[in-house]
Amino acid sequence: MPSAFACGPVRVIWLEPRLGEIVAVLCEAPVLLGAMVLAARRLPGAVRLRRSVATLAGIGVGALVLQQLADFAVGILLRGMTPAQLVAHFATPAGMIYAALLIAFATMPVLANSPRTRRAEKRLPG
Predict the structure, then answer these.
(1) Whole-structure pTM value
(2) What is the pLDDT at residue 4?
(3) What is the reported pLDDT for 3?
(4) Burial class, 83, CB count within 10 angstroms (exposed 0-12 / middle 13-18 / buried 19+)
(5) Beta carbons within 8 Å of 40's beta carbon, 6+ residues apart
(6) Is the distance from CB of 100 to CB of 32 less than 8 angstroms?
(7) Which of 5, 31, 33, 86 has the fewest CB atoms within 10 Å, counting from its CB?
(8) pLDDT recorded at residue 120
């Protein structure tokens, strides 16, 4: 989630001290979900990928692996966290919200490009 790297500092530096970790993550979630939907809808066509379920699922899983590698690198190198601390964060309420967002991230290429989603888009005016 590249937008997480942009939203992360805003959440950690400005929102968390004022609102608490859980509310800060909830404030960030709609921005991340919006970025996921936009990217999942546009990128397969932009790079001319087949929109088969297998291809889209592979994109989602591959993107999740790369995102988690980057997330761990940032946590370890910039925030001084240990891998155990990073994994333990998923057991917190904010971490569970983040885990749900990661599941959405991995599945969004399939969800955003399903035939049902495409038919609904064609019916919208505009």
Answers:
(1) 0.82
(2) 55
(3) 53
(4) exposed
(5) 60, 108, 109, 111, 112, 113
(6) no
(7) 5
(8) 58
In one letter, which amino acid is 13? I
Cα distance between residue 76 and residue 118, in whole Å? 40
**Ordered mean pLDDT values, 10 residues apiece, the chain (126 residues):** 65 90 94 94 90 94 96 93 96 97 97 75 61
List the chain domain ranges. 2-123
Cα separation of 98 and 91, whole Å? 10
H or E element at residue 94: helix 93-112
Listed residue (61, 27, 20, 40) closest to 108, CA to CA = 40
